[in-house]
């Protein structure tokens, strides 16, 4: 679902292109059927849930980075706030998964919206620096306020509760596969919303800002305001992913807020293909699987992750989908 | 009443005075060319007019309204549209999409997160009209970044037109172009001037374009205004001839 | 009471001077090449570790001079091989690159020297306290401050009076014009990068003598370095200097009244600056559009 319409003039494509819905169709088939074939390739359902959660936060970042052209390197903060909001609610306030999720989403989203007002006039690397710094504030709060948040050891003592929808109860607590489909459903809603927004005049304006900020400014577009809105929306989606993360692990910890995770989210986006709508999903899948595999094999997995960053930057900057797209049109 | 006016506009960067006490007035529907050797301060003057930065002293007026302290974005909203020396477009979008951004911005839809049927019709009509005006209908689905220089410039002008401006400021519209493309762009500017009565101010180096299109010419040199008059007056002006040393290519 | 305040202000100036040393290195690379060096804290650690290797053979003083040079050399190599290629691209790439390098260097340090702390032996002559009243002003701390002051003065003089330094300053304002004047911009950037890394390595040797060595020692200084730059104003090294001292002292004074907020206070200062004077204390208007 590339939002920039692929052209069909003879100049660009020597052979007929696949219809635009091919990619999403394939992706949804794979995602929906995952529990069926996952164990055959050495995977497990929680891993698939993990992939979808990370894909959501990566897509949230891509809304800002790939489509508005603005670099945030502190998105883990809103992801983490979503996780903590959910976990804290379940632990101290209520038994309702819906309510917990709502709190998580609001916590991260509102924090992002408020902080956005402070940083949205800055640009480029300066903007990135400020996002990094703000991201760390929440890390320190989670770390230091250990009576409330569990500090370094993280927040425990809660678990996802069976979901009540009308007269039915869905046991996402005991049944991992049902939980996976729940995560996928939330993902689907978020993805649909994002796609809808990107196709609206607002979304087109964001893309224009990405393409040429000066020209956008000289068309009378309120660039600062658009960036702020994009940032806020992105944070809301990120915190939704965080909420799901807390439910997945029945655990929330400060490392989820650290700038390390922020960097990981960015690499997932870049690895999959920064300007592609589905790029982050591809990047997330690769990263989560790779990290799972490597960390089970060696102590020095950090070096490998670092190496991955370096390799992607040096040799695969347009990401997997970026490379495929270029192949298809030359 | 003049459409666009500068009164004693001055811009100094530290001790460097790039624009020195320039006053000029452009009438509605007029095509004014600003010429001068390189470094004369033409683009800086344009930047003052369009609000890129504030003047050190002096004032700018748009249809009698003092806009000296308005930001660039505010001036755009009041009807000043501009193109740049190095074409500023959205390279990875098609011509149609480029113009659409302009039309939606002008209609105030930029923040809309959904479109109604009615909105879409308005936008569509606006885009078609501009594409026809600028002769880009056939190329509407091509990526602007892949077009020829002349077409890119036309696309940039198309975006400016989408804003329904009161005055168009074009910074060296034929810069770096060959014969054919210069002819194409100049033709477009002439049509906009004659058929659609746009007020146009342009910076140009190509004297054929200048003398063919302009109603009035203003000559700048080293930040000051050397002369201001009709093309005949300017051509006959000895000071201008001296400044240019006969560079009427 | 006075002793308590003095104690804290001194601590503040010392920690502040470390922030300054780090921040100046980061700022130099940022201002000229638009690269946020995430691995700066790791180069700092390397400085300490290189000194650690050298001291048994050369003693402390030689190590103090040579170890940062070695780190700068490594920085030079990395710049030539990798950083150089991402200058012209979207800044996200240089950020990811230095991020990745940070992981690699940190892990390598852990691999070669272990995850635990290692001591860095400093000469006895430096370890004495200067007076029993002001017991906290040890010779080493005075020494550290002196070195930092000397370095900062040296750096500013270099930038002001030498040809290379002037070119670097010009480059931070308008690299295109500098290039148009025929100056080799590549060389400038490489040299600038190496200088920045040198400062990190130097800070590492000094820090090692004070708190010992461990693979993460630079981490706690990296974010404050960023904040010092933001508070002081992007583009202004004097601002960075002031910013670093300001947050160091503020943090130390906070320990008196509200110890658990000592990290938080520098973020609060940053937030206030962004709210009230977004360009920083000494930043220029419109430097970052």
Give the arrangement of secondary structure elements.
The complex is a heterotrimer of chains A (330), B (249) and C (289).
Chain A: H1 22-37, H2 45-65, H3 76-93, H4 97-119, H5 124-144, H6 146-149, E1 163-165, E2 168-170, H7 176-198, H8 201-211, H9 213-217, H10 223-249, H11 259-272, H12 279-295, H13 301-315, H14 319-329
Antiparallel strand pairs in A: 1-2
Chain B: E1 4-13, E2 16-26, E3 31-35, H1 42-50, E4 57-62, E5 65-66, H2 72-78, E6 80-83, H3 95-107, H4 117-133, H5 149-162, E7 167-171, H6 179-194, E8 199-203, H7 207-213, E9 216-221, E10 224-229, H8 231-236, H9 238-244
Parallel strand pairs in B: 3-8, 3-9, 6-7, 7-8
Antiparallel strand pairs in B: 1-2, 1-4, 4-5, 9-10
Helix pairs in contact in B: 3-4, 3-5, 4-5, 5-6
Chain C: H1 2-33, H2 40-81, H3 91-113, H4 124-127, H5 139-161, H6 163-173, H7 175-180, H8 185-211, H9 219-232, H10 237-257, H11 262-276
Helix pairs in contact in C: 1-5, 1-8, 1-9, 1-10, 2-3, 2-8, 5-6, 5-8, 6-8, 9-10, 9-11, 10-11
Give a nutshell description of this structure:
Chain A has 330 residues and is mainly α. In chain A, a hairpin with a 2-residue loop joins strand 1 (163-165) and strand 2 (168-170).
Describe this structure in words.
The complex is a heterotrimer of chains A (330), B (249) and C (289). Chain A is mainly α and 330 residues long. Chain A contains 14 helices and two strands; from the N terminus they run H-H-H-H-H-H-E-E-H-H-H-H-H-H-H-H. In chain A, strands 1-2 form a two-stranded antiparallel ribbon. In chain A, strand 1 (163-165) and strand 2 form a beta hairpin. The relative contact order of chain A is 0.17. Chain B is of the alpha/beta class and 249 residues long. In chain B, strand 7 (167-171), helix 6 and strand 8 form a beta-alpha-beta unit. In chain B, helix 3 packs across helix 4 (117-133) and helix 4 packs across helix 5. With 289 residues, chain C is an all-alpha fold. Chain C is globular. Classes of the chains: A mainly alpha (330), B alpha/beta (249), C mainly alpha (289). Chains in contact: A-B, A-C. Chain A binds chain C through residues 65, 71, 73, 118-119, 121-130, 132-134, 136-137, 140-141, 144, 263, 266-267, 270, 274, 300, 302-303, 305-310, 312-314, 317, and chain C through 30, 34-36, 38, 82, 85-86, 89-93, 95-97, 99-108, 110-111, 223, 226-227, 229-230, 234, 260, 263-264, 267, 270-271, 274-275, 278, 287-289.
């Amino acid at each position: 679902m590339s939002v920039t319409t692929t052209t069909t003039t003879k100049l660009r494509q020597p052979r007929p292109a696949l219809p635009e819905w091919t990619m999403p169709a394939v992706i949804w088939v794979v995602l929906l059927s995952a529990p069926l074939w996952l164990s055959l390739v050495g995977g497990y359902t929680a891993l698939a849930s993990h992939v979808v959660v990370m894909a959501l936060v990566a897509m949230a970042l891509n809304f800002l980075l790939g489509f508005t052209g603005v670099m945030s390197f502190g998105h883990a903060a809103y992801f983490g706030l979503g996780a903590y909001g959910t976990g804290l609610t379940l632990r101290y306030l209520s038994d309702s998964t819906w309510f917990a999720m709502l709190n998580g989403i609001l916590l991260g989203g509102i924090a992002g919206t408020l902080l956005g007002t402070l940083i949205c006039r800055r640009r480029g690397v300066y903007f990135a620096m400020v996002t990094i710094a703000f991201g760390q504030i929440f890390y320190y709060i989670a770390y230091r306020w250990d009576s409330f948040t569990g500090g370094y050891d993280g927040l425990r003592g809660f678990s996802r509760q069976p979901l009540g929808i009308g007269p039915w109860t869905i046991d996402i607590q005991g049944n991992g596969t049902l939980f996976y489909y729940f995560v996928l459903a939330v993902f689907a809603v978020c993805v649909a919303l994002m796609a809808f927004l990107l196709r609206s005049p607002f979304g087109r304006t964001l893309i224009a800002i990405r393409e040429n900020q000066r020209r956008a400014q000289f068309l009378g577009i309120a660039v600062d305001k658009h960036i702020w809105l994009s940032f806020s929306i992105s944070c809301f989606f990120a915190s939704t992913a965080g909420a799901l993360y807390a439910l997945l692990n029945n655990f929330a910890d400060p490392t989820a807020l650290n700038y390390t995770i922020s960097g990981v989210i960015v690499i997932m986006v870049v690895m999959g293909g920064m300007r592609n709508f589905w790029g982050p999903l591809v990047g997330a899948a690769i990263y989560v699987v790779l990290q799972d595999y490597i960390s089970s094999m060696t102590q020095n997995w950090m070096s490998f992750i670092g190496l991955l960053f370096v390799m992607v930057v040096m040799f695969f900057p347009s990401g997997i989908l970026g490379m495929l797209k270029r192949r298809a049109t030359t | 009443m003049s459409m666009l006016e500068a009164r004693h506009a001055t811009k100094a960067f530290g001790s460097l005075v790039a624009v020195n006490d320039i006053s000029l007035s452009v009438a509605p529907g007029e095509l004014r060319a600003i010429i001068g050797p390189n470094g004369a301060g033409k683009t800086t003057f344009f930047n003052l007019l369009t609000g890129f930065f504030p003047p050190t002293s002096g004032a700018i007026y748009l249809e009698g309204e003092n806009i000296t302290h308005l930001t660039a974005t505010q001036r755009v909203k009041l009807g000043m549209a501009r193109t740049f020396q190095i074409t500023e477009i959205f390279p990875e979008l098609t011509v149609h999409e480029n113009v659409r951004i302009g039309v939606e911005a002008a209609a105030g839809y930029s923040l809309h997160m959904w479109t109604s049927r009615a909105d879409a019709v308005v936008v569509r009509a606006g885009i078609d009209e501009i594409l026809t005006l600028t002769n880009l209908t056939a190329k509407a689905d091509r990526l602007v970044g892949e077009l020829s220089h002349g077409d890119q410039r036309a696309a940039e002008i198309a975006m400016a037109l989408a804003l329904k401006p009161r005055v168009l400021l074009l910074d060296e519209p034929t810069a770096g172009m060959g014969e054919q493309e210069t002819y194409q762009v100049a033709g477009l500017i002439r049509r906009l001037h004659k058929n659609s009565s746009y007020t146009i101010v342009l910076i140009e180096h190509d004297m054929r374009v200048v003398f063919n299109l302009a109603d009035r010419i203003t000559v700048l040199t080293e930040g000051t205004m050397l002369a201001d008059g009709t093309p005949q007056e300017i051509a006959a002006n000895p000071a201008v001839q001296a400044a240019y040393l006969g560079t009427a290519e | 009471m006075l002793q308590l305040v003095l104690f804290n202000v001194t601590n503040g100036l010392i920690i502040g001077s470390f922030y300054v040393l780090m921040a100046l290195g980061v700022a130099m690379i940022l201002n000229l090449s638009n690269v946020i060096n995430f691995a700066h804290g790791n180069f700092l650690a390397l400085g300490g570790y290189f000194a650690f290797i050298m001291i048994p053979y050369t003693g402390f003083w030689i190590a103090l001079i040579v170890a940062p040079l070695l780190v700068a050399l490594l920085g030079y190599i990395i710049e030539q091989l990798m950083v150089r290629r991402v200058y012209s691209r979207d800044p996200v790439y240089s950020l990811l690159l230095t991020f990745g390098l940070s992981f690699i260097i940190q892990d390598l340090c852990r691999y070669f020297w272990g995850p635990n702390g290692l001591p860095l032996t400093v000469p006895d002559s430096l370890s004495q306290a200067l007076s029993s009243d002001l017991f906290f002003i040890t010779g080493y701390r005075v020494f550290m401050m002196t070195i930092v002051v000397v370095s900062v003065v040296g750096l500013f003089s270099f930038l002001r009076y030498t040809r290379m330094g002037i070119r670097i300053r010009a480059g931070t304002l308008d690299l295109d014009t500098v290039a148009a004047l025929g100056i080799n911009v590549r060389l400038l950037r490489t040299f600038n990068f190496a200088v920045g890394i040198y400062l990190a390595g130097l800070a590492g040797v000094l820090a090692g003598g004070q708190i010992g060595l461990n693979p993460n020692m630079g981490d706690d200084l990296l974010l404050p370095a960023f904040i010092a730059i933001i508070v002081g104003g992007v583009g202004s090294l004097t601002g960075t200097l002031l910013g670093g001292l300001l947050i160091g002292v503020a943090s130390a004074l906070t320990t008196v009244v509200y110890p658990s907020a000592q990290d938080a206070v520098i973020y609060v200062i940053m937030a206030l600056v962004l709210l009230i004077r977004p360009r920083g204390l000494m930043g220029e208007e419109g430097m970052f559009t």
